[in-house]
Write a structure and sequence with these properties.
Largest sheet: 3 strands, antiparallel
Radius of gyration: 33 Å
Oligomer: single chain
Structural class: alpha+beta
Strand content: 5-15%
Order of helices and strands: HHHHEEHHHEEEHHHHHHEH
Helix content: 40-55%
Number of strands: 6
């Protein structure tokens, strides 16, 4: 009986059928577990239609009902255990597979928000209704439980009553691919702050921003910018000097490569970037840049009385040209996609708004995917078929 139940659950384990089965299981357990049953079974020795004592027909039917319920409970418990073991075995077989597709999940409730990344092996499974529901339930449970790390997160209880860890084992068994809970972040805000929540590209990218002096619409627009422009940190103050130096060197190396191509068609060479971040633009550097601009204007013969109108624009150009690392990696230095005449920092200042934080998850970010060498696979298959090693 237990094996039959396993087959039914395993082949057609829609959520509705599992819920119905578990509901029936609870009812049967309630019937079979009544104190009255234990008293009756202690008094009478049960064989089919044979009892050591006078039992009327009504009691006989009642006892048979109890015993049938007990037997069904035992069968269902065995089926559940077999499914659990089968699911764990399937999950174990898939443990070494690379799961780099999937979805992000975002959940906001009051002053708490959560963002999660859940991985699957293929983007096809990421569109599966069961998978999507699992992601959304995970985000909600994380927001409500506020775990400190993945270990605590895996121990949280899902709506099904099982732990988050067990839910992913079950999902791997029923969906047929490795399903893994990769990471999460819990974000909290003050009463006078607002969340901006946004998911892009069908949920492959998820963002949560926290703004002060703003409304949810602006906070969401900033979240959309974060999704599109992929900043790593909030401001240049979060970058190290070593990182800036290395990134600037790579940018100048690319300029060298471009200059080789330009030389071939007779175009002038582009200059190297001298600086890459506000962190490098000391007061002395900025003062010298202004003096250089004035000297240039004098050399061009520009009247000194109009310099005040020209210098601010040229200084803005100097800042843009010498903060390329900031623009690539820091949110506040990036040109705002909703107003390309301003950086994010300048735009927020114009709105009387500040941003406290942002969190951005992109599915598969940092996961090394296995390269598929189709030619080698075909060659290996043919060699095996011909008996060659």
């Amino acid at each position: 009986m237990a094996t039959i139940l396993v087959r039914k659950l395993d082949k057609k384990a829609t959520k509705e059928k599992v819920v119905m089965m578990l509901s029936a299981y609870k009812q049967l357990k309630k019937i079979a577990g009544e104190e009255y049953v234990s008293k009756v079974t202690a008094t009478y020795s049960f064989e089919p239609r044979s009892y050591t004592g006078a039992v009327n027909k009504s009691l006989e039917k009642h006892i048979e009902r109890k015993l049938t319920a007990q037997k069904m409970v035992e069968d269902i418990e065995k089926a559940i255990e077999l499914l659990r073991e089968k699911g764990m075995a399937k999950a174990a077989k898939k443990a070494d597979r690379v799961a780099a597709e999937g979805l992000t999940g975002v959940y906001v409730n009051g002053n708490v928000a959560a963002i999660v990344e859940v991985n699957s092996e293929t983007d096809f499974v990421a569109k599966n209704a069961q998978f999507v529901e699992l992601v959304n339930e995970t985000a909600k449970v994380i927001a409500e439980g506020k775990p400190a790390n993945n270990e605590e997160a895996l121990a949280l209880t899902m709506p099904s009553g099982e732990t988050l860890e067990a839910a992913y084992v079950s999902a791997t068994a029923t969906i047929g691919e490795k399903i893994s809970f990769r990471r999460f972040a819990v974000v909290e805000k003050a009463d006078d702050q607002v969340f901006g929540a946004y998911q892009h590209n069908g949920g492959r990218i998820g963002v949560i921003t926290v703004l002060s002096g703003s409304d949810e619409d602006l906070a969401k627009h900033v979240a959309m910018h974060v999704a599109a422009m992929k900043p790593s940190v909030l401001s240049y103050k979060k970058l190290s000097e070593e990182f800036i130096h290395d990134e600037l060197a790579q940018m100048n190396h690319k300029i060298d490569q471009d200059n080789e191509s330009r030389a071939m068609v007779g175009k002038p060479a582009l200059p190297h970037y001298k600086f890459g971040s506000k962190l490098q633009l000391t007061d002395e550097v900025i003062a010298q840049a202004e003096e250089d601009i004035k000297a240039g204007l004098a050399a061009e013969g520009k009247p000194e009385k109009i310099w005040d109108k020209i210098i601010p624009g040229k200084m803005d150009r100097f800042m843009l040209d010498n903060t390329k690392v900031d623009q690539a990696y820091t949110l506040l230095a990036q040109v705002y996609i909703m107003d390309d005449s301003k950086t994010v920092e300048a735009f927020l200042e114009s709105q009387g708004t500040t941003i406290a934080s942002f969190t951005r998850f992109e599915v598969g970010d940092g996961i090394e995917k296995a390269a598929n060498d189709f030619e080698s696979e075909v060659a290996a298959t043919m060699a095996a078929a011909l008996g060659q090693n």
